[in-house]
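Good morning C.,

I know you're traveling, so I'll keep this short. The sequence:
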Amino acid sequence: QRAVVGTAGSDRKSGSRMAVYDATMRLCPMLQVGDVVAASRWYQDALGLMSGHGGEEFEMLFSGDNLVLQLHRLDAHEHGFLQPDESDVRGAGVSLWFETSDRSAFEALFERADLSGATIVERPHWNPLAHHHEATLIDAEGYIVVIHSPFEADG
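The tokens, ready to paste straight into the viewer:
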């Protein structure tokens, strides 16, 4: 399935034609981390993700057949623009949200994360604005990780 971006195939501001893109596009986030092996182990232990690559510089983590997260060593040199800055503050303004298939899967995933020793910031609770149950964790590199149930009409 393909979709056209823009109104009547053009950008209203510039009048230029917009590109056609594949509507099946999906996000594949990559975190820059100091220790790929330790970060990978955290996501495997706490969230049950599976390694699809492994290694000290780069990792691909899967849920079933779906790639959900990539990890890249911050100081690896093949991507010069990913070099650490002087503040070394990672994840400022970034949080990862993992939606489970249903409420029972959410509860089981939280129990797994808790038993793995993950740092828990917020225990499971109902979020009335998002209409789901959620819990907040901190990963091995300090990133905020939220696990949540799908949208529910009520809690």
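Safe travels,
E.
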